[in-house]
Amino acid sequence: MSANRAEPQGTLEVVLVKGGRTKIRYPAELLRDDGTRIVVRAPWAGAGVRDFGFVRFEPGDVFTEHYWRDRWYSVKEVRAADGSVKGWYCDVTRPAVRSGSALVVEDLDLDLWRSADGRDVRRLDEDEFAASGLARTDPEAASAALTALDALAALAVRAGGFAELLA
User: Fold this and answer.
1) What is the DSSP string of 129-153?
2) C-alpha distances out from residue 153 to 33, 60, 72, 124, Å
């Protein structure tokens, strides 16, 4: 089977790479792979609670994660253990690569948060992105990353937020 076929396989291992090193890896249920977009669902993979001040990720939270082979971002719908939507956490990444049972995604430091009610939209980690040196080492990737963040921000403030993108 080709890595770009549209056939779900049950479980994938999501591998998030940052700065050339694996940041985290976790199993996820493969919901869909249409050859362009890959959708997986996984419980919160962090250790314990991660409190950002504007949202808490904690055991029991479930992430439905959307990755694209042709876009420079991923969008993760975050639900609490009771099923209520907390919001959407978006990572600016290089396009996702599926290789067998692994889904490899390279994080480019930029992130965006949109609360469930749409009132809180935040661009995150722009200082980390600037410090990464990507603009110097790979200006084309840096430009694509900034364009992706702008596109996510524009979607986040629209009525309906990411609904059309994720349909």
Assistant:
1) HHHHTHHHH-HHHHHHHHHHHHHHH
2) 25, 27, 13, 11
Confidence label for 45 from pLDDT (cuts 50, 70 and 90): confident
Write down the residue that tokens 């808490």 correspond to: 56
Residues 135-164: pLDDT tens digits? 999 999 999 999 999 999 999 999 899 999
pTM above 0.90, yes or no: yes
Residue 5 pLDDT grade (very low, low, confident, very high; cuts 50, 70, 90): very low
Token couple for 134 = 């990507």
CA distances from 38 to 6, 24, 87, 142 (A): 9, 18, 19, 23
Distance CA 126, CA 74 (A): 17
Cβ-proximal residues to 2 (8 Å cutoff; 6+ apart), any chain:
none
